[in-house]
Amino acid sequence: MPLQETRVDVFEDIFLVFLGLGTLVGVVVVSYVLYNAYKYRDDGEAKDDESLPTVGELPTGGKGGKKLFLSFGISAVIVISLVIWTYGMLLYVEDPQDEFDEEPVEIEVTGENFAWYFEYANGIESSTTMRVPADHPVAIETTSGDVWHTFGVPDLRVKADAIPGEYDETWFMADEAGTEHEIKCFELCGRGHTAMTGTVQVMEEEAFNEWLNNQLTLEVTIEDQNETPVTEGYEMTLEHTENAQYEEDLVHNYTADDFDENGTISLDHEDLQQGGEYNVTITFEDDQYETIEETTEITRPSSETFTVGSANETDNGNGNNESADGGGGE
Ligand SMILES: [Cu+2]
Questions:
Q1: Class at the top of the CATH hierarchy for domain 105-204
Q2: Which of 72, 133, 177, 179 is buried most, with the most CB atoms less than 10 Å from its CB?
Q3: Are 201 and 177 in contact (CB under 8 A)?
Q4: What is the CATH number of domain 216-313?
Q5: How many Cβ atoms are within 10 Å of 248's Cβ, its own excluded?
Q6: How far apart are CA 147 and CA 244, in angstroms?
C-alpha cells in the first residue's frame, strides 16, 4: 500500500473498486440472463432435442452441478478478496501511525458552546479556523467541554466524536495548499448546532510553521507608576506552571540587561519553546520595588506590562503590582 495516502484517496479507491466490480458482475449476470432468454425463447416449434417437462417430473441429467459450483466459486473469490482488501484499507484509515513517514502535527480539538477550539502541541490555541500544513499528516484528539458533539470535515472524510471526558483520536491529510474545508458538527447538540461550523485552512508547510512560531511570542514591559520604563536592577524568571510535564526545562531567566531602553523584552518561540501558563517572578535589587509575582498565559501573541510600586509605599500590600493592562494576553 502506498504511504501517505489521504483518507480521501482511500475512500475513493474503495468506492471505485466497488463500483467497477459491481458494474462488471451486473453486466455479466444481465447479459447471461438475456442470452438464455433468447436462446430458449418459445418460437412455437419444438426442436428435435427438446423434451418438454411435464408436471411432477423431476429433472434428470445435468453436469453434476458444474455451473452452480462455478458461479458460487467465482462469487466467493470476489466477495472474500473484496472483504480482505477493504478491511486492510480501513485498518490503514483507522491506525496509520506506523506508516507516517513524518511526525504528524498534533492538534487537540474541543467542541464547546457551539464552537470549535484548537490547541497545538506548542500550547498555541485558536478557534473556528484550524490551520494545517499541506501534504503532512495531522493527528487530532477530539473532546467536548459540555455536551456530545461530533467533529467532522466532509471534504477530508474526517469524523470523530467529541464527548466530555473522552478523547477520540483520528487523523487526516490535506493535499492542496490554499484550499479551505468546512468543519461541521454531526451530533445534534442544541440550539446552536447548525451554526457550529469552522474552517480547515490548508497552508504551505513553511507558512504554517512560521504562523505557529509567530503565535508563540511574549512581550514584557516593566514601568513605574509614572509610566517611565524601568531598565535597571532586576531579574525576571518565567516558569511554566506544568514544567514537570515537559522534557525541556521551561524555566527562563532574564536580567535587566536583556530588556531594551523602553523596559521591554520580546521573547519568541525559541526563547519560550512552549506556550501555556507561566509564573512570572520579577525581583528587584536592594528591595528597590516589591517583588512581582503574576501568572500569564501564552496561547497567542501576548504582551504584559507590569507596573512597579515603591517598596516602602506598599503598606496595604496590594494594588501596586497588578499589570497595567488588566492581565494582558487574555
Ligand atoms: Cu455540536
A1: mainly beta
A2: 133
A3: no
A4: 2.60.40.1120
A5: 9
A6: 31
Angle at 114 between CA 112 and CA 118, to 5 degrees: 50
pLDDT tens, residue by residue, 75-106 = 899 899 999 999 998 888 887 766 677 889 99
Cα(100) to ligand 1 centroid in Å equals: 30
Q: Which residues contact 46 (CB under 8 A, 6 or more apart)?
A: 52
Instruction: Please report, as a single letter, which amino acid is at residue 225.
Output: Q
112 alpha carbon to ligand 1 midpoint, in Å? 8
Q: What is the pTM of this model?
A: 0.78
128 — alpha (psi -120 to 50), left (phi > 0) or beta?
Answer: left
Higher pLDDT pick, 328 / 169: 169
Which DSSP helix (H) or strand (E) runs through 129?
Answer: strand 129-133
Which residue has cell 515537559? 246
- Residue-level pLDDT at 310: 63
Neighbours of ion ligand 1 (CB under 5 A): 149, 185, 189, 196
Helix, strand, coil distribution of the chain in percent, nearest 5:
30, 30, 40
Give residue 154's identity as a one-letter amino acid code. P
The whole-chain average pLDDT of the chain stands at: 87
Question: Residue 185 Cα, ligand 1 centroid: separation in angstroms?
Answer: 5
